[in-house]
Design a protein that fits this description.
468 residues, alpha/beta, FAD/NAD(P)-binding domain, Polyamine Oxidase, Chain A, domain 2, 3 domains, 7-stranded mixed sheet, globular, binds flavin-adenine dinucleotide
């Protein structure tokens, strides 16, 4: 085997976890190869050319201001300017009522108080219940993840409308599952970071380009730093060598490395780690941990019209299957003559997994037209439905016990991916954190590549104990 086949580190997977691990390691001077089995980078955060529609499609991904590692990577690679930032969240009801939550002049944690008090989507009793609930996340969120958010809602006396119009749209949108399958720890994190810590931490960022284009600068930065990134190169086999290195086969070629980072999703990682274990008892132990992970689906509906039909960039829809509407043509600043493009998002879309595309489309169109009557008058030029059955994993109560650290029992073998132990739910930020933690672990200094958390502002400087 030639020297060219040997690397300091081989990273498997060019999703955000793998790319961020490779970028960090190569910047630190390591000789790095990345093998990605697909023909594109980005993993689950990808876009593709739809041949029949002649459009580039992706599933809407959003970030929030507290995604410090993803945003740090965006700045380093020069893609930060392609994020459109919004301070305001708009909630729409089927009766046409509109609530806008946005920061005002009061210091954190009261920065949203004025718009919250004015919110027509909630009655006074709902607001009182929400305020008393939010107060519990003022200092932070539980470190123990055993309680479900469902039980917390009951325990804290949340009203039916407070749940339907506030807790549900936020939690299901952010954690992509129903309350019984989300722990209070991660729901509390969402509310502490997005609603209480600082106005900046809760800002909503939307990529203004299709995802593969949006993330291309990270791959470019890594390759400029010397990373050998190989697409259509699936890892087929790996084993430790007697010399304490790793021997791998990918796309029919043999390679060796001092260290390997498996930056693959939990299903693939499980299969790869199983190939290293001979004994049935060890296999059972390994698999028991992975069985705790539940994949959760997201369905998106893509609509192209001959004109603008929303009059706004995005909105949360209440009391419907559709949870969020993104007017992508407005976010991407399309010229008016090009018509408009909207994406409707259904999180935790278990029922839609069983439904046909026509059924999903017609139900979504009915709901969409109810909120945006202009869509009835406009010409629907084309449409598409995209089901992602394994979009995220659910942060089920007690899951933390099974989220592995980035080190493994095998010397020189590391794991990364949103599913590993990061203290974040299944997100791009979680993926980037895991990649950076794995890169740090390879070099013996776990936190070496981690970005600073956003500091709390206002009164939260004294109140918040989370992540400081
Ligand atoms: C529809 C949808 C909407 C989402 N919305 C949001 C959102 O709004 N905000 C947010 O933060 N997150 C969102 N997410 C979640 C986010 O996309 C993921 O958390 C994140 O991209 C995971 O990155 P990762 O690198 O850990 O894993 P992945 O992206 O799964 O990357 C793993 C990579 O490994 C490769 N691979 C696997 N096996 C092999 C092998 N044997 N050899 C070589 N390569 C291999 C895969 O092809 C893949 O590219 C969404 C996800 C989906 C699907």
């Amino acid at each position: 085997m030639s020297d060219a086949a040997h690397s300091d580190v081989i990273v498997i997977g060019a999703g955000l976890a793998g790319l961020s691990a490779a970028a960090a390691l190569s910047k630190a001077g390591a000789d790095v190869k990345v093998f990605e089995r697909r023909p594109y980078i980005g993993g689950r955060a990808y876009s593709y050319e739809h041949p029949a529609l002649e459009e580039t499609i992706d599933s809407q991904h959003v970030v929030v201001g507290c995604c410090t590692n993803l945003l740090d990577l965006a700045r380093q690679s020069g893609m930060a300017d392609s994020i459109r930032w919004y301070d305001e969240l708009v909630f729409l009801e089927p009766n046409g009522q509109r609530t806008s939550l946005r920061p005002g002049k009061l210091p954190a944690p009261m920065h949203q108080t004025l718009s919250f008090l004015r919110a027509p989507m909630l009655r006074l009793t709902d607001k009182a219940a929400i305020a008393s609930g939010l107060l519990r996340f003022l200092r932070g969120y539980p470190q123990d993840d055993s309680e479900s958010f469902d039980s917390w809602l009951k325990r804290t006396g949340q009203t039916e409308r407070a749940i339907r119009h506030f807790w549900e749209p936020v939690v299901v949108g952010a954690l992509n599952d129903t309350f019984d399958r989300c722990s209070v720890k991660y729901a509390g994190k969402v509310f502490h970071e997005s609603f209480l810590r600082s106005p900046e931490a809760g800002r909503l960022g939307v990529p203004a380009a299709p995802l593969s284009e949006f993330f291309a600068p990270i791959a470019a930065m890594a390759t400029q730093a010397g990373v050998d990134l190989r697409l259509k190169t699936g890892l087929e086999f790996l084993e430790p060598t007697p010399e304490g290195r790793w021997s791998l086969r990918a796309a029919g070629e043999a390679f060796t490395a001092d260290s390997v980072v498996l930056a693959t999703d939990f299903k693939q990682t499980r299969a790869l780690l199983n190939s290293l274990v001979a004994e049935e008892r060890e296999k059972d132990q390994l698999n028991a941990g992975f069985e705790a992970f539940v994949p959760s689906p997201i369905t998106t509906i893509h609509l192209w019209y001959d004109r603008d039909v929303t009059g706004m960039d995005h909105a949360i829809l209440l009391d419907t299957r559709i949870q969020w509407v993104f007017a992508k043509s407005r976010i991407r600043r399309w010229a008016k003559e090009r018509g408009s493009y909207c994406e409707l998002v259904i999180s935790a879309s278990w029922p839609e997994l069983e439904m046909g595309r026509e059924e999903i489309l017609s139900s979504a169109l009915n709901e969409f037209q109810m909120f945006f009557p202009a869509a009835r008058e406009a010409k629907l030029v084309k449409s598409s439905v995209l089901k992602e059955a394994r979009a995220t994993f659910s942060v089920t109560p007690g899951l933390d016990r099974y989220r592995q650290p980035q080190t493994t029992p095998w010397k020189g073998l590391y794991v990364a991916g949103d599913w590993t132990a990061t203290d974040w739910p299944s997100t791009m930020e979680g993926a980037v954190r895991s990649g950076r933690l794995a890169a740090g672990a390879v070099l013996g200094d776990r936190k070496r590549f981690m970005a600073q958390e956003l500091p709390p502002t206002g009164l939260m400087r004294w109140l918040s104990r989370a992540g400081t």
